[in-house]
Write a structure and sequence with these properties.
With 74 residues, the protein is mainly beta. It is built from one helix and three strands.
Length: 74
């Protein structure tokens, strides 16, 4: 009703069988949308950026001492 557009975009990156998903969402004024449908980042209101990763890149690596302690100490 206020003349705002809701935008949302995702980018999936696959590196060594590990998928990372970046998501950006927010609101822009129609006047801020360029001729090539490009929006400058400072024009996005209430911007929210989320990051999620699956696979070994999304998990911390444990050293040998951590693995040994993990066997005895939950």
């Amino acid at each position: 009703p206020e003349g705002l557009l809701q935008v949302r975009g995702t980018k999936t990156i696959d590196v060594d069988k590990n998928k990372t998903v970046l998501t950006l969402s927010g609101y822009v004024r129609p006047i801020d949308v360029g001729a090539r449908d490009v929006i400058r980042s400072e024009s996005v209101a209430d911007a929210q950026i989320s990051y999620s990763a699956k696979g070994s890149l999304g998990k911390p690596k444990n050293g040998i001492i951590s693995k040994i302690l993990g066997l005895f100490w939950p």
